[in-house]
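User: Structure please.
Assistant: Input sequence and predicted structure:
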Amino acid sequence: MSQEEFVWFANGLSDGSISDAQAGAFSMAAYLNGMSPGERVNLTLAMRDSGDKISWDLPGAVIDKHSTGGVGDCVSLILAPALAALGAYVPMISGRGLGHTGGTLDKLEAIPGLKTEVSEAQFRQIVSNTGVAIVSATDKIAPADKRLYNVRDVTGTVGSIDLITASILSKKLAAGAEALVLDVKVGSGAFMKAAEDAEVLARALVDTANGAGCRTSALITDMNQPCIGSVGNALEIMEVMVALTGGAPDALVVNLAAELGGELLTLAGMANTSEIGAQQILDAISDGSAAERFARMIVELGGPADFVERWRDRLPASPVIRQVFPPSAGYVSKIDTQSLGSAVVKLGGGRLRGTDKIDPSVGLSDVALLGDAADPKIPLAIIHAGSDTAAESASVLVLAAYDLSEVKPDPQPLVYRNIR
């Protein structure tokens, strides 16, 4: 297809002149036959241009980060304010959880009063004032993508690498980022379970974004365990606050934020090497400047002015707390991370359909990670539930998610590959 044909198609999706049947036929053709790299770029640009495009005139680099989704993945909530503290501007359009994966917007909205749905004018104002805004896309951002995604969902074509690529990037490019780093997850808690599949997706995303004029690279990162010791919206915000206030300097999520941030600062010309950039991220966390930016963003989005000081009092709590103990001793050698995410969904902390309502208070805390010692007297996780029945159902999934061994396993690499 030519660029003109893609523009016609995207505009037709946006204004309704393309029928669902036509969109379904296109999706199936792309799914079965694939697209050339040039076609992928042209579809991405056409969907980006189907709605509003945001341009920025700010005294610093406009940069962004995107994750392909996982369990206990709250990296953006640590990385974005750290980048802002270093002088970057981060207009981050994020998503909600679906299936076993959590959503950044759902986590933020566990904070009382906070709303992530803002107008473009508010979005611009928050980014200008604080350097960072993590919000949902308006209906005017890449409307062709929203229409095509709904068609893909009911035609069995969600798994198309080409359509996934165009869907992710059309929204990111519409938000006006000059540089972008992608966190492509692989493992038991990711959509991509195999390394080769993750690499294909990462390469498609990087090549397409660069072809569309946005400096981009991707890190393929481990999702064979949660990124943090909790899974669930309010519980993950608690972990974020501990990290931002210096209480978890060696946490996986902090190290991953540093790796991704170092790469992004290099792309943006704000660091000479990714190692130097990574240390800058760690410094912004340790000196409290990242927490200060996070606090300012919370207020701009309608949250409490004293949240960083009193977050323990501000977040919702579940009425039922239950510990899950292993049947024997050993070391955690394998985790079915998707099962942990599914346990949170069963508790009411996630959604299987976009219209499902969630309970921000439920989830898992104190989650055992790979290599941790297990003992019948030490819980593998603590369940936070709305009822005893829900806690009992979740405990079955949690127990089934863990394999124990007599020998402590070797540590998993945090980053497998850098795709540039």
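The mean pLDDT is 95.
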